[in-house]
Amino acid sequence: MTLWMHELRLLLRARLSVVALILLAILTAAAVTAGMVEISRQRTAIAAIPAAQSEDIAAVADYVDRTKDAGSAGYYSFHPTWDAPSPLAFAALGMRDVSPYILRVRALGLEAQIYDGDVFNPELALPGRFDFAFVLVFLAPLFVVALFHDLTSGEREAGRLRMLDALPRGGAKLLRRRMLLRIALLWAALAVPFLVAAVASGVGGVAIFAVFSVILAYLLFWMALAALVARLRWSSIANAATLAACWLVLVLVLPTLAHVAINRAVPIGQGAEIALAQREMVNRAWDIPRETTMRRFYAGHPEWADSAPLGSAFHYKWYFAFHQVGDESVATKVRAYRSGLERRDAAARILGWVLPSVGVQALLTRLADTDVRAQLAYQNRVRAFHARLRNFYYGYLFRDRPFGRADFGRAPSFTARINAAGGSGEAADQ
Amino acid sequence: MSATHLIARDELRLMARNRVAVIALVLLVLLTLAAVLSSWSHQRGIAELRTRHQQVAAAAFKAQPDRHPHRMVHYGTFIYRPLGALAAFDPGVDAFTGNSMFLEGHRQNSANFGDVRQSSLLVRFGQLTPAFVLQVVAPLLLIFLGFGVLARETERGTLRLLMLQGVSRGQLVRGKLAALGIVAVIVGFPAMVGFVAVVAQPGTLALPMAAIGLGYALYLALWVVLILLASGFARRGRDALLALLAIWTVAVVLLPRIAPDIAGAAVPLQNRLQTDVAIARDLRQLGDSHNPDDPHLAAFKRSVLQRYGATRVEDLPVNYKGLLAMEGERLTSGLFDRYAGAIFAAQTAQNRLVDAIGVLSPTIAIRALSMAAADTDFAGHRRFLEQAEAYRYALVQRLNRMEAKNVSYADDIAEDAGADRRKRIAADNWQHMPDFAFVAPSAATLATAALPGIIILGLWLAVATLLLTRVTRRLGARQ
């Protein structure tokens, strides 16, 4: 024990290491704070939905109540959906700054609505967010470099290495002690601020433990790299330069190269083509006999086929039907687009097994449920909700039931998913 | 040959003998070439794709059959933001903004399908572009090659030898400066050559290209001076290296990430839901088009009847429904402009804050400069959004005017079996609609936008040079 204390005192006497450790702790604390501020802003925005929504719907109800027309109700009512952040989201904001976490939809064609974005500032999103994942993936390795690059070479340059080697059982044990001590302190500088924020955010124990392990594994990787470079027996300067170059390649250059490669290897038909095709299909309905549209709609949805035939006047059920037929006509394109996104994401994950920087980022955003998969899952929930919306309005439209003020309250409301602590349950499928 | 020359040549010879340095330099040049090629082909691909989509969308609009003009208002049109030639050098925010927009009546849609939502998580690690290589990677290479240029001489005592031989401190520093400067030129040269080579019409864009070239020259020169500064100031080479790595990390990696977070927290943006609800609220107060007794619309009706000297809308020489549609679009578009203006103002305030922090980080300054000159910054995106809205408004009002003039009121309100046919107007009307043509900013506008960045970098360079002269005077004095 006293040996460890001596080693600690020795470490703390070096100004560089003390400054580095304190700086890392401060940066981590700042990053988790920034993340928590952002997440609480998102929660506030989500909490503000009901007030705005009830005002909006009340105005629609005032108008619709005069005619009791279910079609107008469905046409003018926007229904909110939202993607509540998981408790761990503060640590890795992932895609939550560029993908919408609030989206309002109506019972009309979904393909013209689901790709809409929210307001954000692209210049702020461009460099990426300052969150815990950034500190860990990008900055922590540099601190490892600062603390490890001269571990043996420093002793050699000071002329003490031969003496250490001459000690009983060699200097290996001493070296191991030094490395472990440094790793433990670096780990603490990252883990303690994270733990405080995680507990404050209500993250479950399993997720916290998972993040702890990720931190340790990533630090150990960089330590191993430093040890590997140290075996070349170069000077401290050469070690530092080599390790910094490794960092540059592993964290900055290879991911950007891989990004180009993946987007080349997995081309996806632009999503814009879906919107274009769906709009053609929807608007074509005005130029073809209405019965053609209705036949096609009833073929796919026999439960409404017993509805009264269309008269010569406009009827909203035809309008809603051609919107749904429009959606269904691009279903293949939508599936292809989506599987393209999934394949790109999967390719990046596979790369994560080889590139620790990418792997850690992927793991953290998965644990925090803020990655591409989370965005696609949110789209799934929006789709399911939209299906319920359609079904709800069709119950009035196809049965010619009046839609009164009270019926607005009967509309399905979006239910956020039940989130297991930090989405830790999903970590298993990493 | 002067001493300065000799020292520069000697330093370069030393670097050339350092195999790691040469390999690193070669790798950087290769990386630059890869960045230039991939960025160029990406830009070309996108530009072609968007032009093709734009043509398809315009053709589809023109090919529509006889229709009621209001159907065309809802049919709408798609427009795509064309990508300028300079985006091959610095695509800026292009991947982060939507680049296609659906324009229709009554609604202002968001620009959708940005690359960021169509890519894997890797997109957040940055994009491999010549701008990225010069902003991020090149300074690091210069640090590796240059941290020791002065520190080595002090550390090994060769400084005294040199001075004994009659070399002045100034000559020594100028020589080392020249050597590292030549390396910086080698580092920046491939990117610049590639830049000039891939821009198809360099003539018209000469001014912004010169601004970009000057900006990066200043940026790399600043790093060269900073490296000399640290190398002359530090007592040991290792201290210089670690200090420079720390400066690089803060200026290149940390501040560009922290600044947006500060700006985002300081100036909140209203989200779409709140904006939409607020627009609907304002619209109800302006006039409720669903309410026949609405005072605003009643007044509008009176004024129309008065203008034409009629007593009933049926007697008007034009279709009242068309006029009403025009008035409604005028009201909603006024609100869209107001709310969009408020959001633009907030976003601009955020960017100003980041620019202010850019005074502390030359990387933020060069990034802003480079994007502004390449027309790939937020201002460029805003130009697109504003032109899109102007086009949308003109298109919708043109269609509404057709409804007012070419469809009779009696037909427009009829609901009998043949009414649908009578409401339609000839398809050739759509063929006379003007296409959306994005008006790119002039070369002078782009170059002016780059000016603040050039000034900041110039000031940085001046201050750093001043400090270097002071450090030069005290070089070796502390030993």
Q: Can you count the beta strands of chain A?
A: 2
Strand order of the largest sheet of chain A: 1-2
Question: H/E order of the elements of chain B?
Answer: HHHEEHHHHHHHHHHHHHHH
Class derived from helix and strand content of chain B: mainly alpha
| Most extensive chain interface and residues per partner | A-B, 98 and 99 residues
Please give the radius of gyration of chain A in angstroms: 29 Å
How much helicity do the residues of chain A have? 55-70%
The number of distinct helices of chain A, counting runs of at least 4 residues, comes to 18
Shape field of chain B = elongated
Distance between the termini of chain A: 39 Å
Strand content of chain A: under 5%
Oligomerization category of the chains in this entry: heterodimer
Helix and strand content put the structural class of chain A at mainly alpha
Shape descriptor of chain A reads elongated
How many beta-strand segments of chain B?
A: 2
Strand fraction of chain B equals under 5%
User: How many discrete domains of chain A?
Assistant: 1
Question: Which percent bin holds the helix content of chain B?
Answer: over 70%
How many distinct helices of chain B? 18
Give a brief outline of the structure.
The complex is a heterodimer of chains A (430) and B (479). Chain A is an all-alpha fold and 430 residues long.
Structure description:
The complex is a heterodimer of chains A (430) and B (479). Chain A is an all-alpha fold. Chain A has one domain (16-161, 186-430). Helix content of chain A is 68%, strand content 2%. In chain A, strands 1-2 form a two-stranded antiparallel ribbon. In chain A, helix 6 (132-148) runs antiparallel to helix 9 (172-201), helix 6 packs antiparallel against helix 11 and helix 10 runs antiparallel to helix 16 (356-367). Chain A starts with a helix and ends in a 22-residue tail after the last helix. In chain A, 47% of the residues are buried. Chain B has 479 residues and is mostly helical. Chain B has one domain (3-473). Helix content of chain B is 71%, strand content 2%. Chain B contains 18 helices and 2 strands. Chain B has helices at residues 3-17, 19-62, 69-75, 130-146, 151-156, 158-164, 169-198, 206-233, 237-266, 272-286, 295-308, 320-357, 362-374, 378-406, 409-413, 419-423, 428-431, 443-473; strands spanning 77-80, 100-103. Chain B has a two-stranded antiparallel ribbon with strand order 1-2. Chain B is elongated, with a radius of gyration of 31 Å. Chain B starts with a helix and ends in a 6-residue tail after the last helix. The model of chain B has no long low-confidence stretch (mean pLDDT 90). The interface between A and B is large, with 98 and 99 residues.
